[in-house]
Design goal:
The complex is a heterodimer of chains A (about 220) and B (about 250). With about 220 residues, chain A is mostly helical. Chain A has helices at about 5-20, 20-45, 45-70, 75-80, 80-90, 95-120, 130-155, 160-190, 195-210, 210-224. In chain A, helix 6 packs across helix 10 (about 210-225). Chain B is mainly α and about 250 residues long. Chain B has one domain (about 30-190, about 205-245). The chains are: A mainly alpha (about 220), B mainly alpha (about 250).
């Protein structure tokens, strides 16, 4: 089997597994909505305040939702031994890992795109920022899955890796958060956002190339 | 590895054997301590007595003699850790793993010192203990990176595997540090610009600069002493069952 077919097979398998457990698929989404709902309750419902905070609130919530969904990336494969099969396969592990990350993003990151505009309306984000919010979500949620994959691969062998995972991954999320919420913030006040989007795109492209390598190395360490 | 000259590779092979390294560290530590104390004394004397008072910041600027070297060390140690992580991953050298993991708490300590002294300086200068300024924030994130390394190492039972995990994490972290630093800088800046690294014409007077550099070198020596002590302990912990540790204990008893 050539590598490209193995790559597609991994994506198809993971998507199939995810669709068999549809209830789990919705969880990050509910979590995302819930966290956004908590903010008006905590800081008060003044429309001005919420409008100013909207980009940050949406992005912090998206980040936490991504973080929570990360554990599922390699967990079940690690538990049932299919991860070992992937390690034994003749194909480069990094390519297979990339397939898994993409499938994970399609299942957990992409749905955020559908619900985010709704939440943006709830928080009173100006309409002119809606397009930018979408663009940042398209560019940056895959980045969250990619960067997170390194952390998951390092902690998948541990029984209680959850808190540790957030300590490892959240500092690395900082640039994504800054540029993504910064872009939405600027778009809300009608400023150009080309620079932020270009940087996000650059980070996404370099992460696509670089991230699978340490992730594969870390998985090899975790499985042994 | 034909491109490495034979004496160099021989030196590395010998140094990386635990008993040899242990004895070597024992021999070096007293000398390093003497050099450290001399440099520290000279740096503190120059910084606290000889250097003139700043025309704007008064005497409170003198905290830079601790703050700036600690901040430099916090970055320097992380880069060193990444280099050792690379060596540990490529050549599977046990000593590099030991040095990497022994460096992490020291680096975290320097980062903490830089944060605390910066905060103490910020109170009289900026009127507040903490501001969400670029350098402070990226230093804080650096502290979290250190803590991540330390707790990942602690969480994995098998220490060789833990060392590999930590090496990967250190390498990933070192790629991210500049990205984090510049993104945070782009986000917000209040911290004063660099005054020393403008090499052609530093905006700091020579009588203030010399003690600062002395302190920076003193801190490097302190790091060497601390890392050798920590590495000795880590080696003893890892090799409790081996012959040379038993021989050492018998000799000391």
């Amino acid at each position: 089997m050539p590598i490209i077919r193995a790559f597609w097979a991994i994506i198809r398998r993971d998507l199939l597994l995810a669709f068999r457990r549809r209830a789990e698929m919705a969880n990050p989404l509910f979590f995302f909505v819930l966290v956004v709902t908590l903010f008006p309750l905590a800081v008060g419902a003044q429309p001005n305040l919420l409008r100013a905070m909207a980009p940050g609130v949406i992005w912090v919530s998206a980040l936490l939702a991504a973080l929570l969904s990360l554990d599922g990336l390699f967990r079940s494969d690690f538990d049932d031994g299919s991860l070992e099969q992937m390690l034994l396969s003749p194909h480069a592990l990094s390519i297979l890992v990339l397939g898994k990350i993409i499938a994970h993003w399609l299942v957990t990151g992409l749905p955020l795109l559908l619900i985010a505009p709704l939440l943006a309306v709830f928080l009173g984000l100006p309409e002119q920022a809606m397009g930018t919010l979408w663009l940042t979500l398209i560019l940056a949620t895959p980045l969250l899955s990619l960067i997170g994959a390194i952390g998951v691969a390092l902690t998948v062998g541990l029984r209680r890796g959850g808190m540790l995972l957030s300590l490892l991954v959240l500092p690395l999320y900082v640039p994504v958060l800054i540029f993504a919420s910064g872009a939405v913030d600027r778009a809300a006040s009608g400023l150009p956002v080309g620079a932020q989007l270009n940087i996000l795109l650059a980070m996404l492209l370099s992460a696509l190339v670089l991230v699978p390598l340490p992730t594969a190395a870390a998985l090899k360490m975790s499985v042994n | 590895m034909s491109w490495i000259p034979a004496p160099v590779s021989r030196f590395f092979h010998r140094t990386s054997s635990p008993p040899y390294f242990y004895a070597l560290a024992d021999r070096f530590i007293p000398w390093l301590t003497i050099i450290f104390l001399l440099l520290l004394g000279a740096g503190l004397y120059g910084g606290l007595y000889l250097a003139p008072t700043d025309y704007q910041q008064g005497d409170s600027y003198r905290i830079i003699y601790i703050h700036v070297p600690a901040a430099w060390m916090s970055l320097f140690i992380y880069v060193l850790m990444a280099i050792m992580g690379g060596i540990a991953l490529i050549w599977r050298m046990k000593l590099a793993e030991v040095m990497l993991i022994s460096s992490a708490p020291i680096g975290a300590g320097f980062t903490f010192v830089a944060l605390v002294t910066g905060s103490l300086w910020g109170k009289p200068m900026w009127g507040t203990w903490w501001v969400w300024d670029a350098r402070l924030t990226s230093e804080l994130i650096l502290l979290f990176l250190y803590l991540g390394v330390i707790s990942l190492y602690g969480a994995i039972e098998e220490k060789r595997a833990a060392a590999r995990a930590v090496s990967i994490l250190a390498l990933v972290g070192v790629v991210n540090i500049p990205i984090i630093h510049y993104s945070v800088q782009w986000w917000n800046t209040l911290h004063q610009g660099p005054t020393v690294s403008k090499m052609d014409k530093p905006s700091i007077h020579v009588s203030m600069l010399v003690p600062l550099l002395l302190m920076a070198v003193a801190f490097k020596f302190y790091y060497l002493i601390a890392v050798l002590q920590a590495a000795k302990l880590e080696l003893l912990k890892r090799e409790t069952t081996s012959q040379w540790v038993k021989a050492l204990l018998e000799k000391q008893a």
